[in-house]
Each structure stands twice: as structure tokens, then as C-alpha cells.
Amino acid sequence: MRVTGDGGVGIEVFVDGPQDGRPVLLMHGWPDTHALWQPQVEALTAAGFRTIAPDLRGFGISEMPEDTDAYRVEHTVADMVAVLDALGIERADVVAHDWGAAAAWGLVAMVPERVERYVAMSVGHPAAFLAAGLEQRMRSWYMLLFQFEGVAEAWLEKFGRLMLASHPGRDEVLERWQDRRALVAGLQWYRANANPKTVLRDRVDLPPVRCPVLGIWSSRDVALTESQMTGSMDCVQGPWRYERVEGVGHWMQIEAPGVVNPILLDYLR
User: Fold this and answer.
1) Rounded to whole angstroms, how far apart are CA atoms 35 and 169?
2) Spatial separation of the C-alpha atoms in residues 88 and 99, rounded to whole Å
């Protein structure tokens, strides 16, 4: 189904599972689409949940605004509220990964009345990310590269296969990047939300998170440190739980659904 998001941006949404099932909103990150969640959709719907998996703005078949500011995470927060409204859902569990998780931290903080509980995968609270220190800055080197318009696009066209070596769906991502609009739109997320000036900030101004939160981090994630996830506990006033997935890379939900799915089902039940 198509939902009109913030600023009139069209958001494509894929809904599965029983109409009366408990709703779970699944938010993917870069460079993915709703299809990232297919193993989780199958497990959740089999357990009686109703899954809502949008292509976030700029990804998949959702619209790709040209303006960089249109990719600021607050617009995605508003998009997700529009999705829930369109489906008549008052409150949902939220499971999010990568940039989807970054936006979902904003959703649970700014619109707490719409969220039952939250599962953050890979990416911790923005304040914890900021406090994670030099190691996290070093792992985030590519965020600086992605700021350079034209240069980043050319670099990914030449070295994207190497950079995405650990992505289980690399060939599909590279095929989507043949449409240069898709390549640029993904980079816009970094340009709108990860400007180098942000590393100089002393704090992140978000209301405290009061809903229950589960943080999941995988031990072979080359882009994100464990401390930026475990440190998120200090930003959560509600119940906090942490799970570490051993021997798995950044895209854990594809690499190890046999490990991830039981964690999700146990928590969401």
C-alpha cells in the first residue's frame, strides 16, 4: 500500500499477518529495503503478529526527494506516524536496524504514545553513539567520505562491491544502485544526519525513552562498537535489556535469523 508521508513523500508499505495480530513496525537502514526483514516477517506472522515493513524514504520503491534536508530523521519519524495512522494502529512494537534504528530512537522519544516497546538493532541511542569515543569515530570513517557529493557516488560505483563484501544481499544492492537516483538517495541520509560538525556536539537533545527497550549488537559489526549500544541503557528510563549475538556481522537479521528470530519472539511476546 502507498502512504503519503511527511511533506507529501510517498512511502510504500508492505503489510503481512493477521488483521487482528499485534502490530510490529519494521524499519530497515542503509542500503536496504523492506525485504531485509523477510526472515523476521515469516517468523513473526507465523507467531500471530501483524508486520508493517515500509521502504523508508529514498529506498526501494518509496519516493526519493531531491532535497538533502528531506532525509533528516525527523521526517522519517513523521512518515512512520503517517503509516500507523493510515493503518488505524494506535500503538505498535518497533524493530529497527541501522538508519532505521537511528530514526526509531527519535520515534520512541518524540512520539512515545505510539510505541509499545522498541528493539534497536546495531545502532544505539544518538547520545550513546556520540559518547562512544575515538574507536567509534574511526569505524565511522565512511560517513565523512559520503559527505562529498559526486566523489562518494563515484567511489561506491567503483568500490561498492568491496565495501559491501559482508552484505548477504550485495548483488541485489548493487543492481539497485544502477539507478543513480537510488545511490544518491541513500547517501542523502548521511549528508542530512551525519555532518562532520555533529562529532563536535557535547550532547543530543532528545526526551528520555520511557518504553521498554531491547538492544541487540553483533560481535562482527565492523561499523559499530558495542559500547554505543550498551551505553544506550543510560538514555532509557524504561526497562532495558541487552543481547549480544556472537560471530555475526552487521546484517544479523539475514545472516543469523535462527538466532535473531527467537530473541525477537521471546521479547515481543
Assistant:
1) 10
2) 25
Q: Is residue 208 part of a domain?
A: yes
Q: Which three cell numbers stand for residue 109?
A: 522519544
For residues 101 and 110, give the distance between their C-alpha atoms in angstroms, rounded to a whole number: 14
Question: Does residue 64 fall inside a structural domain?
Answer: yes
The three grid cell numbers given for residue 260, joined into one nine-digit string: 535473531
Q: What domain range includes position 231?
A: 2-264
Please give the distance of CA 56 from its chain centroid, rounded to a whole number. Answer: 9
In a domain, 269, yes or no: no
CATH at 100: 3.40.50.1820
100-117 confidence digits (pLDDT tens): 999 999 999 999 999 999
Total count of domains within the chain: 1
Give tens-digit pLDDT for 182-228: 999 999 999 999 988 765 565 667 899 999 999 999 999 999 999 99
Residue 10 host element (H or E):
strand 10-16
